[in-house]
Structure formats: structure tokens, C-alpha cells
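Format notes (please read before filing issues)

Several people have asked whether sequences and C-alpha cells are stored in separate files. They are not. Every record keeps both together, in the order shown below: the sequence lines, then the C-alpha cell lines. Line labels are part of the format and must not be stripped during preprocessing.
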Amino acid sequence: MAERRAIVLIAVIVVAVGAGGVVVFERSQTPSASESTIATGSASVVRTDLATTIQVNGTLGYAGSYLVANQANGTYTALPAPGQVITAGQQVYEVDGRAVVLFYGPRPVWRPLSLGVPDGPDVAQLKHNLVTLGFGTLRIDNHFDAATAADVRRWQAHLGVPVTGIVGMTDMVYASGPIRVDTVSASLGDPARPGTLVNASGTSQVVNLSVPVAQEYLARVGDTVSVVLPDGSTTVSGTITSVSKAAASASTTAQSSNAPPAPAVVNATVVLANPALAASFDQAPVTVSITDQSVHGVLAVPINALVALAGGGYGIYVLAGHTRRLVGVRTGLFSDTMVQVSGTGLAAGMSVQVPAS
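Then the structure lines:
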């Protein structure tokens, strides 16, 4: 019998060399057995924004730091509790049954105030608090006059203390706003002596970051970050509001052991866009994502759509009906599961081949 010879159809491969070159692989024939076993799917070329991030450990805390100093002698008869929030006009603590209240202002108490004292900004600070708390309609200035004394008496009557019209140095403490008690250095019944009594913070919850010095350039005031809360499932955005100009030294724990010193860090503060989401956490660890690089309005495909080319670089299979063509692409930013691509003829909405999930 005459030997039959099979006719083999060989696909023509056209290679255009250079960035964005096209490798055409037009196929209308049935795939080989090995190709048929590879499951594939499709995805779209999209126009989007991409970003890469680094993750930094942070701790939820409260902004601000205050030391509340006692100036009275006697016995502590009431003390605040850790975690307690105290606002203007409220009692901070008590000595010999007399309340010491919180007023707002930048200046500490440094002298008694009464009729005849020289004018000063501490008088204006006192007047501002009395007016704010509803004990007078004073003109706020630096002069302590009879009207000021009358409003002080109204305030003293409200507190239930001796009504004298004189403000003593042990009647109040000042802070710039509401305070949250962290620690108290005395117990009920302890002798009251001049000195620091309460360590406190502000009431605005923030995230404190320790950014490695090598990545300090990523932490910029005004930048937006993402914070994963301790429950691991809640993410809230935040803004970097401060970055220390000096690096902190390595931890003393690392220095006192045989372990290598911890890397130096720069401290930064993040204010949360929605603090209520973090209200149930205190001094808890969080993970903060800071943007490293970003691009906007670029074409992108899933990373697993990339095909390594024999001559170097990458391509993607563009699908059209029952055919596909291998298009060389230039890659840009890689972000999570997507990669920025560019190349001749690429457009948003094109279908590309990806491994089946």
C-alpha cells in the first residue's frame, strides 16, 4: 500500500522586537492534548488607580499629655479613676472635703485672685471659664473687679464651698481641654502634699506609630493611611498629623540582652477619620498601611495574566472570539493582585487570558 503522509500545518510566528512589540499567535486549529488540560479563564483590562503600601505597627492611644499637680495640704478625700474623662467645671479630686475643679486655659495657677490684684492674663483666663460655665456675663479682660468677685461667689455657692469671692491657688487646675485620667499616684486617705498627682491625656483617640528610620520618608504630615483595628476586620482611614524630627533610640530591652539592638524609629501620630469605630479599644495594637508608590488612571490587568517571554519581558494573551494573540507589554507598578501595563493597541475593556481560579 502507498504510504500515507500527514500534512502538518505550521503556525507562522511573527515577532516584533522592542518594547511593546507584538507576538501574534493566531490559532484556529484545535489545541493540542497538553493545552486542552490547562484550564483558563478571562479577565478585563481596566483603567484604575494602583498603590503599593508598607505596613507599620501602631498603638491606639490618646492625644496630649498632662500632669495635674496638687498644691493643697491635707488629706485626699476623693480621687478620680483611671479612664475617667473630666471636663471644665467638674471635680478632679478633693482635699479635706473641698473640690479641686478643672478649668480650661494654657496658664497654671500661680497666685490667689481677688479684688486689688494687679491685672494679668490669669484673670482673663478665670473670667473666660466663669462666663463659659454660666456664672456671669463678664467682659473678659485682665482686670479683677467687683463684678468678677460677684461671679466668683456665685460659682463658689454652686460648688458648696465657702463663699468669699476670692479664688485660691488650690481651687482649680488648668488644662487646654478635657482630660482623660491615666494614672493616679495617691490613694484615698493619703496625706495631700504639693506635687504631681494625676497623669492624664486628652480625649481624642489617635494612633501612635513607630516608623523605621529607613522608611521615614513615607510618613508625611497630611497623608492618608489605613488602620486595621485590633478586631482584625475593621478598617478606618486616618491622617498623619505629626512626625517627630528626631529618631528614637533602640529599645532598652534589646540593648540589655544578647539580641541585636532594635532599629531606630521615628514617632508619628495618626488621627482617625471615625474615632467612634475605635472607642472600645485602649492601648491596643493596630496595623497601619502607608502608601509607598501610587499611579492614577492607568491600564491594569491581573498579575497572573502576565506571560514571561523567551527573550525577556512580559506579554498578555488578548482574547477575541475563539482566537488569542500574545501582546508584549511594558509593566509598571505591581499592587496586590494587579499590575500596571502599557503597549500598542491595549485599551480598557479588552479581554485577557488568565489561569482559571
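For reference, the curators noted about this record: Residues 43 and 352 are 5 Å apart (CA to CA). The longest strand covers residues 285-302.
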